[in-house]
Sequence to fold (631 residues):
Amino acid sequence: MASETSVSAASGAHGDGLPPEGERRRDFLYVATGAFAAVGAAAVVVPLVNQMNPSADVLALASIDLDLTPIQPGQAIVASWRGKPIFARQLTPQEIATANAVDIKTLRDPQTLAERTKPGNEKWLITLGVCTHLGCVPLGAREGENRGDYGGYYCPCHGSQYDIAGRIRGGPAPKNLEVPTYAFKSPTSVTIG
Amino acid sequence: MSFPWAKHYQPTSEFGKYMDSRLPLPRFIYGALGAGYPTPKNLNYFYNFGVLAGVALVIQIITGVVLGMHYAANTGIAFDSVEHIMRDVNSGWMIRYMHAVGASFFFAVVYVHIFRGLYYGSYKPPREVLWLLGLVIFLLMMATAFMGYVLVWGQMSFWGATVITNLFSAVPIVGEAIHTWLLGGFAPDNATLNRFFSLHYLLPFIIFGVIILHVWALHIPGSNNPTGVDVKGPQDTVPFHPYYTAKDFFGLGVYLTLFSVFVFFLPNALGEVDNYVPANPLSTPTHIVPEWYLLPFYAILKAFTTDFLLVKAKLWGVIAMLAAIVLLFFLPWLDTSPVRSNRYRPLNRIFFWIFVADCLVLGYCGGQLAVEPWVRIGQLAAAYYFAHFLIIIPLIARFEKTLPLPNSISESVLAKYGKPPASGSAGTLGGTAPQPAE
Ligand code: FES
Fold:
């Protein structure tokens, strides 16, 4: 208390003409300086943080053309798109039947096979080969790999199981394998991206 | 700080006096690590591990700075530059192995240091801030070690980076944005490698800074000791130098011997072979595991395999793994028992060892494929980990009947070794081997 009074008295003595109580000119200056410094600091922090976001060359979208002719029914291939693997699979009629027989209400991420493929091309299942748990590449696209309990893909990292339609059925992953944007150029080739 | 009977620095030479009135660095060291720092006289060898951790950090910084002179943080040549260090750089193989083995040893030492603190109740008042700073160092160490491991840009580096950065994508709504921001892209790539190199170089110096705070916080109340009883007077302490400098140097000798055995004879025993395969973004190794020192936390991450309470399994895993570390920050307030040392806490001592076993089980499960029985065992061990802190510790603190404490450190030491002062000192020496479970 004593020091406060003496400070006010001192500033009063310096002639700012205000009573010892209440807002002083100096209080206003403190707040204004602090506010200005805070805005300035924020203005510097934004670019410093933002520089870590993807740079222009990384963002530049790349699309690839994928030829589906070499894929036999029941087989899949692995391609690379924007640094990530793509699984392209030709389903057999039985596999399509198996996928459609599942009651989608029982699924963690309910989707029908039709929703995951293009109309008229239900036998072509094209997904990212990126586990929706923590991003490993699931097994099952290449010949002889473990395809898990549901006959689709099996992620070795923490044991996520995907069915033949790439839908999550067991393990920690939250979502179905992502379907990228793509379009059929011809009956046997697609453009991804 | 320190006790009133601490000796004061007396500069002897003219130069010493000159410096003492200008930059009193010798006075500072004398008071912090010299004869001017009275230390409980009953510290056992488990109290060496703080100093050992400091030495381990210094080894990492020196070898790391040297490696940085030859390493290239570019995805095209990073792996090759590491091989260049191994094959072409003069003594490069030795320096790299020192760095890699050194990281494992650093963690081993720090884990002993942490469990020492748990056993003797060194987290209890008045040392809570000391404990919290130690945990901050531990977190920084984990971040540094992870990023350093990525720099090699082998298969484990790449997929470890993929998995760990993906943890952040579990955060609702903003998760994906954070994930992309951390990577600087949509998958680990050159941007990721470069920033990890930059931060891996920076963090050890931040760790060094926090260690200074940690040691400062230690010097305010002074070291805890195996009895957990406060220092009562000069008869309870000895000067840090020469008593504990000598003891620490002996421990350091043992440590460096063991370290050399690993560097020269078992350099890859603690690592993963898969990291000698260059990173391939299109193929995940059949079995991704972090380095051994992160396995218990990895097991907790993997323990959640189904959604429950409206939260996705993935998010549960991430929350649990973070909580496993964050819980430690609350330990000083979860354990309300007024007795520090487990020497006088018979019930808590049993559960301490069960907890140690639980951590080992978690570590083992973390290293296994996600198949039964390891998934179930891992889940049980993870559940126990949380129960230990949230249920067992608070309950024991309330209901345990503790043993009578000695009146002073001095009394406890005399009761143990000094009773018949004349008869056979050799026999009593045999009993001085430091065992925490005595
Ligand atoms: S990344 Fe596939 S299960 Fe974890």
